[in-house]
Design brief:
The radius of gyration is 24 Å and the shape is globular. The chain contains nine helices and 21 strands. The longest helix is centred in the middle third of the chain and has 16 residues. It folds into two domains: 317 residues, Naphthalene 1,2-dioxygenase Alpha Subunit, Chain A, domain 1 (Alpha-Beta Complex); 115 residues, Rieske Iron-sulfur Protein (3-layer Sandwich), CATH 2.102.10.10. By secondary structure, the protein is α+β, with helices and mostly antiparallel strands. The strands form four sheets. An eight-stranded mixed sheet has the order 12-13-14-15-16-17-11-21. Strands 1-10-9-4-3-2-5 form a seven-stranded antiparallel sheet, with no helix packed on it.
């Protein structure tokens, strides 16, 4: 990509919208009636990420995306475009494809054998002559779903008259473009059923007020004091937080001392932790300068398109309605709580980790400051929130919590979410009492109310 073809991610503060003060009552987290309203007015109206475009690279590659009661079949076409269809045979309503992904030149219904090509057109069926109007082949098609590709993701919308893609995703598409996520590999792809409403987890990612209490270990290399973060709320419901990284929080017990993993991050970029004794607040700028100096020779092609702040800081994008994307210098964390198909007190929580496609990630210090590429049993590995994983597209994993882990920090979030689900049903909870730094939470629920009440 030519650096001149796009603008750097802006840091300019966006004007705050008016917060009406809508109450956040407990029933929206457990009411089946409210769940039905969300389905009718939100999930069937908004653009949502169905998957990764690069994971269906060849014609006739496909995957199935599930949201609520619907399944969407996403297929790479012969001309390399991507189409999406409802994963159901129009004949009698049978589910058409019963696997998550694969390669098929046609889709044959397992009930009566009706067969469709990858363009969704009926091409074959038994007893074609037994129709009053003649063979339906070529006349019947799978119902198509609106589909776009942006930032390397496949997006779908179940509304035929939906908002334009670029308008709905403003300013997310422009802000994330310099990271070039279309050149990233999803090396972690996990889903966990959690005993809480999906909004409880999304609310958690809409604020950083919980960091000092729930994630105190992060303060040794992330500035978690809200006074040093920037919060932006956009008109269409998206918001972001810019948080300084690669330095201790001023509120940490030893804000001027270099501790692990910050020391390892310095070493990874040929800086001596001893040089920062008593002045650890200087590490952020020092690492920015060193990365800028060494990146090209080390093959870190993506740094050229990032600002100095993006070489150390965390850009959190909380996107409406439910996907939370953390842009880091060397990896993208995608966390999304999906609504359970039938139970408002459960959700399906997805956790992805994507890394740039490059020869070596050595020195990126994405996690714990260590080199993130090593070779194990002849296969290149990369560090993730779950430890080393192969540097290739990951297979989908289902995790049973708490027997399995979604990542140390993520597990902490899940543990609180389960307890909160119980608490919002209590008569002791009437409405969320929020600090100013949590205003994004109320703003989010106000946008949700706008959809449900027909204002959007």
């Amino acid at each position: 990509m030519d650096k001149s073809t796009f603008k750097p991610t802006p840091r300019t503060k966006h004007p705050d919208p008016v917060i009406r003060g809508d109450k956040i009552t407990g029933d929206r987290y457990y009411s089946k009636d409210f769940m039905k309203k969300e389905w009718d007015h939100v999930w069937t109206k908004v653009w949502q990420i169905a998957g990764i475009a690069s994971e269906i690279p060849e014609p006739d590659d496909f995957f199935v995306y599930k949201i609520g009661i619907e399944e969407i079949l996403v297929v790479r076409q012969k001309d390399m475009t991507i189409k999406a269809f409802y994963n159901v045979c129009p004949h009698r309503g049978n589910i058409l494809v019963h696997v998550e992904k694969g390669f098929l030149e046609s889709f044959k219904c397992t009930y009566h054998g009706w067969t469709y090509n990858t363009q969704g057109i009926l091409t074959d069926l038994q007893d074609a002559e037994d129709f009053d109007d003649g063979s339906p082949c070529g006349k019947i098609k799978l119902k198509e779903v609106k589909c776009e590709v942006g930032l390397g993701f496949v997006w779908v919308n179940l509304d035929d008259n939906c908002q334009k893609f670029e308008e709905a995703l403003y300013p997310i598409l422009d802000h994330m473009k310099p990271y070039q996520p279309e050149k990233y590999i999803r090396v972690l792809n996990m889903t966990c059923e959690v005993d809480c409403n999906w909004k409880i987890i999304h609310d958690n990612f809409n604020e950083s007020y919980h960091l000092p209490t729930l994630h105190p270990e992060l303060s040794v290399h992330i500035e978690n004091d809200y006074k040093f973060s920037q919060f932006d709320m956009y008109d269409n419901g998206h918001n972001r937080m810019l948080m300084p990284g690669h330095k201790p929080a001023l509120g940490d017990q030893s804000p001027n001392e270099v501790q692990f993993p910050l020391d390892a991050a310095l070493i990874a970029w040929d800086l001596n932790p001893e040089d920062f004794k008593g002045k650890a607040q200087e590490t952020r700028i020092a690492i920015q300068k060193q990365k800028r100096k060494l990146a090209k020779d080390r093959g870190f092609w993506h740094y050229e398109f990032l600002t100095d702040e993006q070489l150390t800081d965390y850009y959190f994008y909380n996107c409406f309605p439910n996907y939370d994307i953390t842009m880091t210098p060397d990896g993208i964390q995608f966390q999304r709580p999906q609504p359970h198909p039938t139970d408002p007190e459960k959700c399906l929580f997805e956790h992805w980790w994507l890394v740039p496609e490059m020869e070596s990630l050595s020195g990126s210090a994405t996690f714990m400051g260590s080199d993130t590429t090593e070779v194990t049993a002849g296969e290149k590995m990369t560090e993730t929130p779950l430890g080393p994983r192969p540097l290739r597209p990951a297979e989908h994993e289902w995790v049973i919590y708490p027997e399995g882990s979604m990542g140390y920090v993520t597990d902490q979030d899940i543990s609180m979410a389960i307890g909160q689900q119980k608490g919002v049903k209590s008569k002791g909870f009437d409405d969320a009492i929020l600090t100013n730094q949590e205003r994004r939470v109320r703003r989010y629920h106000e946008v949700l109310n706008d959809y449900i009440e027909g204002r959007r």
